[in-house]
Specification:
Number of domains: 1
Strand order of the largest sheet: 6-7-4-11-14-9
Mean pLDDT: 78
Largest sheet: 6 strands, antiparallel
Strand content: 35-45%
Helix content: under 10%
Shape: globular
Order of helices and strands: EEEEEEEEEEEEEEHH
CATH topology: Double-stranded beta-helix
CATH architecture: 4-Layer Sandwich
Number of helices: 2
């Protein structure tokens, strides 16, 4: 098997298979500008990845839900915060959005991060959700402001452009369903909105 990540800001993973070889994928798409990282999974050392991060892997990789935290809506659209857990033995290709920041945490060292910026981390890293009291945030549907506490030892990769944050940033520029004349007026926002809706 040969695999190569091609491109810069919108990379594509090209995999060449020999007879009898295979890869496993749940979706196999690249959504945002970012990076595709090949990562080796070994027995007894799980890897946690953001919900859209796992592109594909060799047949020895077993994906499952590693964590699901429910919020009332807002930024997460009611689906909550989900991490995939990759276990087994083989190679996985992970898509992380935007720029990457890599940390190697010492035992007991804690990193506090906005949930959307968590790209992936090793299974040796402890993970917990922490609500910041007294701060209301529309992004979490009124549930307050949450941070993720990642405690070492282990490696952590953060992403600078999570999909929900980008979607929220673009929302004011997209056309509204209630304004059918937005595209006719030549407004860029209306045009983009119509394209997004397939009109």
């Amino acid at each position: 098997m040969q695999a190569e990540s091609k491109g810069t800001t919108m990379p594509v993973l090209e995999v060449t298979l020999e007879p009898g070889e295979e890869v496993v994928s749940t979706h196999g798409e690249a959504k945002l500008p970012g990076h595709i990282m090949p990562t080796d999974i070994v027995p007894g050392q799980a890897l946690f990845v953001h919900r859209h991060g796992w592109l594909c892997g060799t047949p020895g990789i077993t994906p499952s839900i590693g964590l699901q935290q429910t919020f009332r809506g807002g930024l997460w659209g009611g689906d909550g915060f989900i991490l995939q857990k990759l276990e087994g033995q083989g190679r996985a290709w992970i898509e992380l959005s935007g720029e990457l920041v890599h940390y190697t945490l010492a035992p007991g060292q804690t990193l506090m991060v906005h949930p959307g910026h968590v790209g992936m981390f090793e299974g040796s890293v402890q993970f917990s959700m922490t609500r910041v009291p007294g701060i209301a945030n529309v992004a979490f549907g009124g549930d307050g402001f949450f941070l993720v506490a990642l405690t070492g030892p282990g490696q952590v990769w953060l992403q600078s452009m999570p999909l929900p944050v980008l979607a929220q940033a673009l929302e004011p520029y997209l056309g509204r369903q209630a304004d059918p004349q937005a595209a006719e007026t030549g407004a860029i926002g209306g045009l983009i909105g119509d394209i997004m809706r397939g009109q």
